[in-house]
Amino acid sequence: MENKQGILLESGTNELELVEFKVGKNAYGINVIKVKEILQPLPLTMIPHSHDHIEGIVQLRGEVLPVVNMANVLGTAFHSPENEQKFIVAEFNGQRVIFHVDQVSKIHRFTWNDIEKPSEMYQGASSQIIGVIKMGAEMLLLLDFEKIIVDINPSTGIQVGDITKLGPRERSSKSILVAEDSPLLRKLIQETLDAAGYSHLTFFENGEDAFSYLESIVNTKSDIAEHVQLVITDIEMPRMDGHTLTRKIKDDARLEKLPVLIFSSLITNDLRHKGEQVGAQEQVSKPEIAELVMKIDQYIL
Fold first, then answer.
1. What whole-number distance in Å separates Cα of residue 14 and Cα of residue 33?
2. Is cis: bond before 287, omega within 30 of 0?
3. Which end of the chain is more exposed for a tag (fewer CB within 10 A), N or C?
4. Which part of the chain is the CheW-like domain (predicted)?
5. Between vectors from CA 83 to CA 77 and to CA 84, what angle results, nearest 5°?
């Protein structure tokens, strides 16, 4: 998995590739961008009094990494013999973690339009499922890996208290559009930006709806700067991802001057060029909310 040459080299195509893996009887997907490598299970060192989802720690090329037992996370049991199970080494939110799964099968290419939002009837407030992809008679479930890690260690998530480090703040009534599919993160972003003085926020669950809103403004021949002064977008979203949203904004002469800040768990040195290709003004890795606020200050005050 280390060599991703030839995989989604262009940004803003609204495509993604998912590594399919199994836990119990269900098939799940993880964005290939998050996956560093896939290994046979390694010997574990148990950690007393650790979270129920933490199986232990392993040493991988000198780095000590936690192993998350995905069967425990999903409330099921492994079905594969131990010698067929796999470790998925992933990196996001500026950290590395290992997910222990039943098996890893293949890589699929989809568009973000292929991903359906889970129904509220079966999703539930504590569900880790953030998307469903139909593959014939089968379904591929997409998990909120960021939520899984924050549930284990809340300190890895967005912290409203980080804003207090910036000191007393008074901000104007500038309007900010935020595209973020996670209900939890929308709530946290609203709380933190409100604490930072930015209370005029308009949220959308995906890039498609966000872009339609921006188009509706300029189609009335209104100056976008009178209605929206800045866009914050995640990358991974159903229907239209953040890179595609950014590219479409920058390709539209009526919107191109609108500053776009990408706020995503996928911001790494290896992937930063993707945001640069589509014209994002800044890219901030979750959960660095204080850094995001300082970047907002630079562009709209």
1. 14
2. yes
3. C
4. 15-154
5. 65
Tens-digit pLDDT profile for residues 187-217: 888 888 888 888 899 999 999 999 999 999 9
Both 143 and 223 in one domain: the answer is no
Q: What is the pTM of this model?
A: 0.80
Is residue 211, in this structure, part of any structural domain at all? yes
4 within some domain: no
Domain count, the chain: 2
Grouping H, G, I as helix, E, B as strand and the rest as coil, residue 37 is: strand
Query: Which spans in the chain are helix H?
Result: 70-73, 120-123, 145-152, 183-195, 207-218, 242-251, 272-278, 289-300
Work out the burial of residue 61: count CB atoms within 10 Å of its CB; fewer than 13 is exposed, 13-18 middle, 19 or more buried. exposed
Q: Report pLDDT digits (tens) over 61-91.
A: 989 999 999 999 999 999 999 889 999 999 9
**Could you tell me whether strands 230-233 and 260-264 are parallel, antiparallel, or unpaired per DSSP bridges?**
parallel
Residue with tokens 């000198």: 62
Q: What is the CATH number of the domain that holds 60?
A: 2.40.50.180
Same domain, 150 and 61: yes
Q: What H or E segment, with its residue span, contains residue 110?
A: strand 103-111
